């Protein structure tokens, strides 16, 4: 910005004034205002209000009569077994889905980048589930996973006597949701990795080859460092998104069986919108933010500064 | 056969074998990924007795359009599609206008405090969307926007993503264009509309398509804000068909196909733009 | 108050002026113009009305509202229009409560009687706007009891929808049972179930076709009561971890275990699919099931009274009812409230279709004698038997707990997981249920 600003400051346009204020300042503010208004009311203000609400036993009828309870909501959270179960479920879901989302996305991108036929078709198919709404994704997979007449269990029926209920077994339900999520979202990571890989200058590989580097070394010394920013982006964004998993358990399992697929955002939703504990719900939201900030920082430290 | 020859042909075999393997893995994955689609489409045309048999039929032994007819005439599907279109389209349109305005102001105009503003917008990326829903609901409710289009559109418009993408792009437009235009007596609005916007057309298209798809698919927020089923968007409507008294798998499948159709058509024609919008986010380059 | 009202209507005008919103979402708010001011000489009112009906009931309610708007049946000078909004049950009570707490709720709403105590803070007793003694005789006594809580008439009763038993006659036949003699007690129930499992490839019994928590509760609590067990003590502590509760939990456990009456699954709608495909012998569900069963072609089904618990000491069948309430509202105004109360009275007393087509037991005293009701396609098959049970006074109502959400699936998930053997043993499930529900009530 610096260079250009120095230039515009000297232009005619910049020297004009309106009621004694630089015209460009007036314009700059005016052009920013529509977005800033929406941004302030619907993003910044709620974020601040949420912090405030989380310190109250919020009374939804008469907010002004809410009782200030300090960090009591947060203390209560720490002693709330449902919260810890939801936390555990969320972490489990993230641990299952994020590595797969990143690795499968990367693998497909590196594969398609090779000399394969039909790149466009492959790309179109890999990316396509991403444009589906989660409601459609869950409806489709409910038929695939169904215990009685599902696609998977029909074919499993050939090799085992009683195939498991994918969404009705406490051990399998969460992995099933995670696998479905990988199918749904892997295309997003794939196209990013593909673009990043295609952006690596070929001469770097030639140089590596001249040095007698093996494929593995070329991958380690050229591909990975060159793609670091994209990998960092994808890992962070997937952590953020998957930590907020909601619709998959909400639609398919209702958090069950035996609360094995409960998640933080689902619990937040129930606390606020079915139990009307707004302060408590807001507190869960803030805990979520703290976790995500922590994860982002760790990611930056681990992936970002490898040199 | 000499050693050298042997080595070379071995290498060739190795290369073509490996290429074959790559193809097999890539196409295998593609087929596996397409299976749920094909299965869904096929089942949406099958009479009930085939759907409830434990043996799946890939090719419908008998075709029925009953489910499609039912959904189009007996449910609020058409109304939901219209709602979704208004919400996703309206949000996209507003995003394009006001995001490009502020991005223009932050990059092409010089005013005190603009770096602070950009800093705040960037920092807001750290606010996970869902964290905000409880206080956001109280705000939207205080404004009387519950169960209205605006109650869904305005929070969507507040997303900083578009500002961020356009900011990056506008910043990289060479100053020479603008200088020349100023010398020709262009007003600020003319610079925006005749120089910056036309140059930004590709990224605007990508942003528009991405935002349209994103808001078309939005789930949690519309679920919270919309209460009257006549005001539902498609994703919410679908889930309610599912959770309601309709337990015919054929209806689920048909509604799935119908609900995905509009976006699939968009995807078919504008695949490049949508993919590019994702790639820009992930690689920070507009190329 | 006046200030409040002013700002609300200004706000609405602002929203209307800004465009798109107006079309559907706020139609209710804008209709009727200044009517919310009350007594301002305005002669048209729009009553926003929320309901939750789907399946066979939805279209009937739609027709009733249409009839109201067309015929203007109230004997008043004003023109009254009902603006109906439907929210599916899965979200209905969350949405309604959230809307009411934020002051954007409807003028009139359908509510299950189970809520009439815990939601006392968000409803106005109907007696505030109607002389209840004038209309009490329009309703059957047991329905009037249903809406009377703590000595106060909180709503107008619309119907009663008890639990019933449903069986597949063809499955009975192929199991060598008499398709016209459904079970009337535990011994016959047990014999029938075992015969189905032994003689056919079908499942014998599903505790609830939807295989959901609340559905399981209807059946489970009926069986507990039939064995003389209680559900809550006088301080609203769950008391169902008693002998009858333990026996019934063990029975549920065994049905998907040693008895082999049903697969051990928690898959949603397992029973719905199996029963409509003819792969299930018996199930239990509310009156509303009748309308959807009638839509299934080639399904030869029959009805039985669900008094089939082992060691039965009394007949007892779960029931709840739909009621019409006037939610607490700052903007409705006195006249509009009176009109809404009249509309609720009309809706609950002048519409025999509600029983005839939706399959429920109407609350209005004279509807049962009406031709429309007695000519209902379900009359002989189910309604007459439901009426017999009403006359024998076997229904007990879904407990009106003092707090929380009495029909929330969260409260009863443990029964579904008990059915699917997701606990170590039935006692663990029962104890989990006690703690879940008592937490839900305390909240």
UniProtKB/TrEMBL annotation, chain A:
CDD domains: TM_PBP2. Pfam families: BPD_transp_1. The chain crosses the membrane at residues 29-48, 91-112, 124-141, 172-196, 230-251, 278-300. Belongs to the binding-protein-dependent transport system permease family. Residues 87-299 form the ABC transmembrane type-1 domain. The keyword Iron does not apply. It is found in: Cell membrane. It is a multi-pass membrane protein. One of its GO terms (biological process) is transmembrane transport. Keywords: Cell membrane, Membrane, Transmembrane, Transmembrane helix, Transport. InterPro entries: ABC_transporter_permease, MetI-like, MetI-like_sf. PROSITE patterns: ABC_TM1. The lineage of its organism: Archaea, Methanobacteriati, Methanobacteriota, Stenosarchaea group, Halobacteria. This is Sugar ABC transporter permease. The keyword Transmembrane helix applies. One of its GO terms (cellular component) is plasma membrane. It comes from the Archaea.
UniProtKB/TrEMBL annotation, chain B:
The keyword Nucleotidyltransferase does not apply. Residues 81-270 form the ABC transmembrane type-1 domain. GO terms for biological process: transmembrane transport. GO terms for cellular component: plasma membrane. Its main location: membrane. The keyword Transport applies. PROSITE patterns: ABC_TM1 (PS50928). It is found in: Cell membrane. It is a multi-pass membrane protein. Keywords: Cell membrane, Membrane, Transmembrane, Transmembrane helix, Transport. SUPFAM superfamilies: MetI-like (SSF161098). It comes from the Archaea. Pfam families: BPD_transp_1. The chain crosses the membrane at residues 20-39, 82-104, 116-137, 149-170, 191-213, 219-239, 251-270. Belongs to the binding-protein-dependent transport system permease family. This is Sugar ABC transporter permease. It comes from Halarchaeum nitratireducens. The lineage of its organism: Archaea, Methanobacteriati, Methanobacteriota, Stenosarchaea group, Halobacteria.
């Amino acid at each position: 910005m610096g260079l250009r600003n120095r230039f515009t400051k000297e232009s005619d346009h910049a020297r004009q004034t309106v009621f004694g204020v630089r015209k460009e300042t007036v314009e700059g503010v005016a052009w920013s205002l529509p977005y800033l208004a929406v941004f302030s009311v619907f993003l910044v203000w709620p974020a601040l209000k949420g912090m405030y609400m989380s310190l109250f036993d919020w009374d939804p009828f008469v907010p002004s009569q809410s009782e200030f309870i300090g960090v009591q909501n947060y203390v209560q959270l720490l002693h709330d077994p449902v919260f810890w179960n939801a936390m555990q479920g969320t972490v489990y879901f993230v641990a299952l889905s994020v590595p797969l989302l990143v690795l499968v996305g990367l693998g497909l991108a590196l594969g398609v980048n090779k000399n394969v036929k039909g790149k466009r078709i492959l790309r179109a198919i890999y990316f396509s589930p991403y444009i589906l709404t989660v409601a459609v994704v869950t409806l489709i997979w409910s038929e695939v996973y169904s215990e009685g007449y599902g696609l998977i269990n029909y074919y499993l029926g050939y090799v085992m006597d009683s195939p498991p209920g994918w969404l009705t077994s406490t051990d399998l339900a969460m992995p099933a949701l995670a696998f479905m999520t990988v199918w749904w979202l892997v295309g997003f990571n794939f196209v990013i990795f593909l673009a990043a890989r295609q952006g690596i200058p070929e001469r770097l590989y030639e140089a590596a080859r001249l040095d007698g580097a093996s494929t593995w070394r070329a991958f380690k010394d050229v591909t990975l460092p060159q793609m670091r920013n994209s990998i960092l982006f994808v890992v962070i964004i997937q952590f953020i998104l998957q930590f907020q998993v909601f619709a998959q358990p909400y639609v398919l399992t209702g958090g069950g069986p035996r609360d094995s697929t409960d998640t933080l955002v689902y619990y937040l939703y129930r606390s606020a919108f079915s139990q009307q504990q707004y302060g408590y719900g807001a507190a869960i939201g803030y805990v979520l933010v703290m976790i995500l900030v922590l994860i982002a920082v760790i990611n930056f430290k681990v992936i970002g500064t490898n040199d | 056969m000499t050693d050298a020859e042997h080595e070379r042909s071995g290498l060739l075999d190795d290369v073509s074998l490996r290429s074959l393997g790559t193809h097999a893995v890539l196409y295998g994955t593609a087929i596996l990924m397409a299976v749920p689609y094909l299965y869904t489409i096929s089942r949406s045309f099958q009479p009930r007795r085939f759907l409830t048999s434990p043996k799946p039929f890939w090719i419908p032994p008998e075709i029925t359009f009953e489910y499609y007819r039912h959904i189009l005439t007996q449910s609020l599907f058409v109304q939901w599609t219209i709602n979704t279109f208004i919400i996703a389209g309206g949000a996209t349109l507003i995003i394009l206008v006001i995001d490009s305005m502020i991005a223009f102001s932050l990059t092409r105009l010089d005013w005190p405090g603009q770096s602070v503003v950009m800093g705040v917008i960037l920092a807001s990326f750290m606010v996970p969307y869902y964290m905000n829903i409880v206080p956001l609901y109280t705000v939207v409710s205080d404004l009387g926007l519950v169960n209205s289009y605006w109650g869904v559109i305005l929070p969507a418009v507040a997303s900083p993503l578009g500002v961020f993408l356009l900011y990056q792009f506008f910043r990289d437009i060479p100053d020479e264009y603008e200088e020349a235009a100023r010398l020709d007596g262009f007003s600020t609005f003319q610079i925006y509309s005749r120089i910056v916007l036309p140059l930004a057309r590709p990224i605007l298209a990508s942003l528009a398509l991405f935002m349209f798809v994103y808001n078309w698919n939005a789930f949690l927020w519309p679920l919270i804000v919309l209460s009257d089923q006549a005001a539902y968007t498609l994703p919410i409507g679908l889930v309610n068909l599912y959770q309601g008294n309709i337990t015919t798998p054929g209806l689920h499948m048909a509604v799935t196909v119908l609900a995905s159709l509009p976006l699939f058509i968009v995807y078919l024609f504008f695949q490049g733009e949508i993919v590019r919008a994702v790639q820009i986010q992930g690689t920070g380059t507009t190329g | 108050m006046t200030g409040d009202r002013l700002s609300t209507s200004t706000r609405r005008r602002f929203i209307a002026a800004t465009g798109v919103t107006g079309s559907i979402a706020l139609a209710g708010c804008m209709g009727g113009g200044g009517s919310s001011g009350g007594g301002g000489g305005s002669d048209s009112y729009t009553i926003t009305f929320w309901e939750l009906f789907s399946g066979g009931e939805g279209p009937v309610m739609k027709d009733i509202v249409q009839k109201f708007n067309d015929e203007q049946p109230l004997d008043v000078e004003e023109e009254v229009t009902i603006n109906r909004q439907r929210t599916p049950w899965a979200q209905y009570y969350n949405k309604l409560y959230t809307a009411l707490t934020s002051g954007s709720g409807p003028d009139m709403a359908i509510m299950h009687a189970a809520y009439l105590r815990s939601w006392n803070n968000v409803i106005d007793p109907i007696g505030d706007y109607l002389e209840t003694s004038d209309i009490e005789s329009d309703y059957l006594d047991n329905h009037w009891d249903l809406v009377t809580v703590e000595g106060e008439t909180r709503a107008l009763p619309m119907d009663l929808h008890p639990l019933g038993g449903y069986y597949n006659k063809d499955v009975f036949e192929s199991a060598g049972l008499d398709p016209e003699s459904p079970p009337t007690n535990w011994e016959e129930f047990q014999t029938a179930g075992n015969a189905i499992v032994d003689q056919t490839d079908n499942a014998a019994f599903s505790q609830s076709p939807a295989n959901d928590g609340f559905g399981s509760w209807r059946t489970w609590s009926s069986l507990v009561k039939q064995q003389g067990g209680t559900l809550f003590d006088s301080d609203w502590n769950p008391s169902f971890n008693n002998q009858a509760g333990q026996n019934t939990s063990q029975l549920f456990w065994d049905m998907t275990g040693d008895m082999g009456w049903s697969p051990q699954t928690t898959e949603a709608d397992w029973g719905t699919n199996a029963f409509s495909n003819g792969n299930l012998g018996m199930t239990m569900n509310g009156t509303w099931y009748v309308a959807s069963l009638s839509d299934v072609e080639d399904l030869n089904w029959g009805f039985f009274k669900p008094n089939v618990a082992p060691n039965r000491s009394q007949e007892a069948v779960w029931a709840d009812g739909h009621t019409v309430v006037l939610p607490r509202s700052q903007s409705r105004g006195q006249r509009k409230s009176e009109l809404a109360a009249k509309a609720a009275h009309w809706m609950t007393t002048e519409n025999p279709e509600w029983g005839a087509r939706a399959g429920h037991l109407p609350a209005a005293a004279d509807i049962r004698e009406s031709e429309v009701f007695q000519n209902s396609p379900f009359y002989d098959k189910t309604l007459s038997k439901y009426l017999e049970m009403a006359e024998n006074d076997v229904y007990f109502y879904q407990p009106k707990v003092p707090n929380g959400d009495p029909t929330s699936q969260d409260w009863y998930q443990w029964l579904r997981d008990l059915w699917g053997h997701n606990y170590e043993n039935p006692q663990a499930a029962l104890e989990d249920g006690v703690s879940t529900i008592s937490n839900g009530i305390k909240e």
